[in-house]
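Quick one: structure tokens for this chain, please?
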Amino acid sequence: MRTSFPFSVKTPLLINRLRYIRESYKVVFTELLLEDDTRVGFYKESNGLLVWQGSYLTRSAESHLSWHSVTAAISTLVDNHELIAAIDPKKAVSQDEQLSFDLPENASRGDEVGTLEVDDIYSEEEQDEKIKAVLPTYHYKEPQPDDGSHITEDDVNVIITRGSVFEGGKYRIYNHFQQEKTEKETVAFLKKEYGIGGFSWTFADGGSGFVNFDSKGFSILYDFKDGLRYEKKLKWKEVGKRLEYLVRMDRYLTDAEREKMPAWISRQAESKPLPPPIPDKKPVCEVGSTVYLENDQRFTVESIGQFDVHLRNEDFPLVGRAVSREQFQQLLDTNPRNGGMVLSEQQRESLVQEQREQALSYIEDYLKDEFEITEPDFSDLTQIGLGYTTTEDEQHTIQVNADLEHCTISKLVDDTLYAQEKFSSLEEMNRKFLSILDFDSLMEVDINEIEEQEPEISADEPEESTFVSQVMQDVDRLAAREEPAEYDRTNYLAPYEPAVPEGPKAKFAVNVQAIRTLKEIEQRMASGGAPASEQEQDILAGYLGWGGLADAFDPGKDNWHTEYEQLKTLLTEDEYAAARESTLTAFYTPPAVIHAMYRALEHIGCVGGNVLEPSMGVGAFFGHRHSKFDTHNAKLYGVELDSLSGRIAQQLYQKAKIQITGYEKADLPDNFFDLAIGNVPFGQYQVGDRRYDKLHFQVHDYFLAKTVDKLRVGGIMAFITTSGTLDKKSEDVRQYLAARCDLIGAVRLPNTTFKSNAGTEVTSDILFLQKRGRVLEQDAPWIHVGETENGIPLNQYFIDHPEMVCGEMQMVSGPYGMRSTCVPNVQSPLAEQLDAALSTLHAEYTLVDEQEYAEEESGTIDADPNVRNFSYTVKDDVIYYRENSKMRVVKGGETALARIRALVPLRDTCRELINAQLENFPDEYIEKLQARLNDQYDAYRKKYGLINSRGTASAFREDSGYFLLCSLEVLDDEGNFKGKTDMFTKRTIRPAQAVDHVDTAEESLALSLSEQGHVDLGYMSKLTGKTTETVINDLTGIIFRDPVKVDTDGNPIYLPADEYLSGNVREKLQAAKAVATNDPQFQVNVAALEKVQPKDLEASEISVRLGATWIPAEYVQQFLEELLDAPYYTRRMVKVEFAAYTGSWAITNKKFGDGNIKATVTYGTNRANAYLIAENALNLRSTQIRDKVTAADGSVSWVLNKEATQAAQEKQRQICEQFQDWIFKEPERRQRLVAIYNEKFNALRPREYDGSHLKFPGMNPEITLRPHQLNAIAHVLYGNNVLLAHEVGAGKTYEMVASAMEKKRLGLCSKTLIVVPNHLTEQMASEALLLYPNAEILVAKKTDFKKENRKKFCARIATGNYDIIVIGHSQFEKIPLSAERQHMYLQRQIDDVIDQIALLKSSRAENFTIKQMERTRKQLKKKLDKLNDQQRKDDVVTFEDLGVDSLMVDEAHYFKNAMIATKMRNVAGISQTESQKSSDMLMKCMYLDEVTGGHGIVFATGTPISNSMTEMYVMMRYLQRGLLEKEGLLNFDSWASTFGESITAIELNPTGTGYRTKTRFARFYNLPELMSLFKMSADIQTADMLHLPVPELTGGKPTNIVLQPSEVQKRMVKGLADRAEKVRNGKVQPTEDNMLRITNDGRKLALDQRLMNPLLPDDPGSKANACVDKVYEIWEKTKEQRSTQMIFCDLSTPKEDGFDVYNDVRDKLVAKGIPKEEVQFIHDADTETKKAELFGKVRNGIVRVLMGSTQKMGAGTNVQTRLIALHHLDCPWRPADIAQRNGRMVRQGNLNKEVSIFIYVTESTFDSYSWQLVENKQKFISQIMTSKSPARSCEDLDEAALTYAEVKALAAGNPMIKEKMDLDIQVARLRTLKAAYTSQHYRLEDAVAVAFPRQIKRNRASNPCV
């Protein structure tokens, strides 16, 4: 008797048997020899056994058996008693044999679910025992390492001499070792020869075992008695050495094998077998390689990325494919035709290592976030604990472990395996499991299943069929409630050549019949009836529109009277008006044209996906679609403006989603459609769509531009458009399209194409465009219009491809003169011409998402456009997540899914409430929504807790509305709930109030600027009801017409006064004067501009330095000739030259000056004559003299000669002083130079921005922006790139957010990327949502930029319609600019240089200049070659791909360390090393300038200049590149020579005991002009400008506490001075001691002597002790109000053992009586959570003393609430650091009205040096950041800098320093007096030379008698 058990029933017997058999097989390649010498093999896979016949690499057949099939086969053998019979334990198994079995004929061989027959003779327990008894591999014991006592050396050698398992293997191995091979080549050869596999083995002592080999080497197993096993492992390197020894000793081949060797060699030479013998070196797979994958399909490798490989099917070139690198390597290995091809060993090994590191990173982040485990134990990768808990009844324990070696996740209940999930690879494990770790999901178990003791097994187990139960549930649900009847919906398919009615009356009749039928259908559907039937669709499809039927709408036409009455009766008023209007514009596309377009699309491969027709009429393009679109289940989407046409279309295409609205209002997602097809409307008018208004495109071009954004990357646009798109003179439209799309092809249609319907001749084109993945400005031929041989203007594409013109181009007379037209070719039908032309089109096209969703296609549906992208939704009780054009089913734990179900309606209600507020709905409606929101929120919080919790974040963070929901809760500093936000009770969004009328032109101007972003006279005229001319007259002097520019339609452009009367006003005045001579209306411009001209500077006000690049070279030449009194031959030979492009000066033939005493003695030395020194001065270099020194070993070095250098530098100083005295002496020269300077640098007038008129619809009305914030936002909206240089606390965050939202609202940008420090991303998002609750914000989290997630996250940026994207600084760096664009920038520079060289050669320029240019060209070419050599990584998402056109960077000073190319050398403050992130930022700024015209970048920082002058240049280069280039200052040396000077000055040396010389930038000139240049982009707001409510400092400045050094400190300072002397004299090696080490030791010594030696005594007078006393004193005084204090110390950190200042200070404070818990170190808060908790305690006064470093307590440390005192224990390196330190306390939100800052200084120590450094830096910064007008030169110290100087003097203990500062001040005053004298002197000279003679001449002319 047999019992049948269906596999779908989970009995313990079947589950255990299936698991038992699966675990009995090991994951090794195994091959067997059967009795008939047939070789077979098998390999264990996760879902069954792979079996094959023959050797694996040359197998003749293969099959896959599921575990069900294997279990069934073994069960059958057991049932028939054949399995035991096949095993004879007495018979020894030879080394080439293994037990095998044949599958019975009736056994299942596939994955199908069969039945398992079980014999009743045996019970279940007996069956188990029988199986276990005959399958010895069931009991596996871990082998022990063998020490040689069981597996001998002879055993190893015998095993190795067996050879590989493949035919001819021994001969190949022997042959390999006959050649000279490296160890690396041998290892690679052996890996490939042996492959992965093994064989059984009988040892010499009769014992049995097994030999395995894999990529690591040999593993020899010996099965000893009593179940013991021993193992010996050999790496391939060791195997190779043994083989080499055996071959060399002639012990490898037997005599018989040696005799057969020659014959084998000759066979190898004669035959060329397929596959070839395994080569010594495996071929490496590269781009372009041909590979063979499944079913021997041939593919070409297109690209090899970091994560995946892109392939192209050679047989079907339109089909592409992408697979992971790991999967690709497996596919390569599987097919022998690839000859063992590999991606490369290094790639394969690094891939595994990368994935392992990634896995550990995921686990580490999870353990840190979930359990705050910072140092997890990863010693055993096979058992890493992920969680441990108990069930709710605490009856069972649950534990989850990860095994990274075997890629499994095991869940144990009560220490028994409950469930196990196995992954095919670490990559899959990372992607599907470890990257989304969630504690709740991990710990989920079915309590009932636990009780029944039925553990789960992996996915290989048969699953219960859910189909029947699902059907029954549907039946029950339908029976439970009545639903509206569902009708089968169909999409109409038109006849290939539909009959067209002839004559107007016939056309009218079919139109009326269609309309009547439509109205009957709509009436029927209103009562629940069916949509249009097939017969009704045939009638509806006859509707042809009203083109050519104008008579039917004319009541005066007698012969159309009946029809007129019919229409009036049949149509509503709106329908009638629309129909009448369409008589002139309705076009009917002939089916022949549509079919030709579809045939071209089929040829390309575009036959499915999401299809859009944006101006569809009744849907002719849908009706004539190719049949393959239905085969591929294409989804149709349409838009139609006309109501009748749109409603007919909805009945014709019932499955399509059709919107009846204008294209500008259609709700269509971006990056969604695979194909856009149709005939766009033609017309000379524009459509109002704010996103595209700035383009000023006509309606047909607008349709093209908008559709580009709607297409996905790779999607195709096939549109019929007017010929003007391609032929118009303006290239704007074509440039816009070419930057975003590739032109597949175009066809010029004859002018009669639409004549039969439209009744008019119009020339049109069919355009085929394919969207690219990035915006790339390029010069394509089709952008330009050329001329045919006959002089007819025509697009260059048609000139190059005349076969694409269906007819002949001719010039004909038009209403506006001669125009071109395409006359039809009557000799052949249009359809044939179109097919001939379109057959040549080619594009690489694949349907989207084929690979991405291949694994889970059953779990995806097409996206619902009504669901926001990247959002969850619930449909039919199933949770989906939308990603672009697909929605996938969400899987996860029950708790997580339940959270999502609760959050989706909460999110939707929140958005509904926001929209209601934006639309200004009534209070009753708002209150109802608020009540619903309250109920939903309360229900969620009651069940799941806060939205701002880890559980909610884990479940819902991927949703685009996650941060919106987070903003509903108000939390305290510790993250505890304080209450609900105002959205629950108040209106939190300012509605957009549409103003339709104002009284005055001034009001209309304010509204125009606020709502349109510019002066829009049409809009202003509509608001006021006045004519445009009246508005212009009313605003005379308030707006000005631009005399140079016009808009795209040729209309004049008007600008507001603040814009027109700013910028380069000298240049504008010249332009206005030139136009005003012919047009008097521009006299008002001239008059206004003359009033704002900057006052001309006089010579005495202009500082000129030798080397200033704006000075003509002939003046420098003249100066040297006069200075050196050079003889004639020297003047003729020595020339001064300047290369403008590189900014380099040169003096030729300098040696001719050696014979001149003035050149070698007076102004030169015997080592460097005056010409050489002058050349150095011109290039801003200090002269250095070096001596050649030859060492004993013959090596040569050049050593600085100090005496000669000092003498040469003194001569250089003299030459520079002489030049300054000479340059303005001669009046004519002076006047010319002053004119050049004024024209070049004194021409800018910074614009004053006024933002008072801005309205900010959508902003929270509870928040009011301050005036300076409004003005800054106006600067961003109306100005170019902006630097928001605002004091800490000025509200930069709100400025950036409001600017981003307004830019998007006004159509000035499409999306803004805000880059902030990494730890501030979520804070930025929460503040943005507080200001704009309706903002669409995407926030990057840390894991988003891990390698495997980066591409997906960047795709969200690119495809999502976000207002703001927030990412961290380090994440921003990981999105590179494309290699193509970098190539373009470098090539552009090379082209510029080549043009310059050609120009110079043509003008016979000197060789120096040409050589300079050639050198520059070679350097750029080298960079370009290096870029081209880099392998292109196609999977890297580039910055251009994001679609970002607005960039805002917070804390932008982090990007200031950009490399500066300069000729200067060894100058402090100039960096010539490139910071990667800064160079990356510069390239991105260049790209955005190109895309936005210099309007797309905002930098924000409180410290734009923190260290040196160069930072100001760097900021200007980021933001004002175009302006610097225009002014000739883009080269740093040009900029520096104009505004600064490097000087060599005496400074304190680091020891504080002497002086040294140092060259640095410390003197700056022409500061007002520099500031005018800087303020063109900089919006500066300092503390004295803002008047922020911050506490005052006690005494008005910091308090200095001066301490005397101890005797030990004095001795040690002297020791440091001695060490420094030794270093300077070269008496010690740099590795032993150097100045950096001395400086560091000196700073430590100044802080506490025990930092140098912990054994030294504690000095009672040390800074630490003084600080302790002061801190305790303040702590005692402020006990009641619990005031807090901060101590800054950068030079020490807390230690667990040994001395440190932190613990020393805390211990002393505790000893004085302060509780230890009130004194905390910032270092203890090592996570963001702990840091937030600590800051909260400081704000609440629980922690009253906080110690830390500048870096750890800088930006983002908001603890000011109770701060009363701040202590500087040491001096930081930068003034900005001091500002950051002080800014922690002196800021808004501090409850104290007066606070103290204490600076602790130890005299005669390094403190003096440290404070002097800060002082030098503060000098310049104070001048730049002041709100007052800057002085002409930066010499005087401001008040803040004097404070630092005072500290320095006190610390040095040297009264002479104070005296030196007094002398400096006196010198500055004397300079001022000298400047005044010089100015008066020059003025009188000019008067005598020019003014007086002119006046005398005038007087004589007017009075001849005089």
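The two ends are 149 Å apart (CA to CA).
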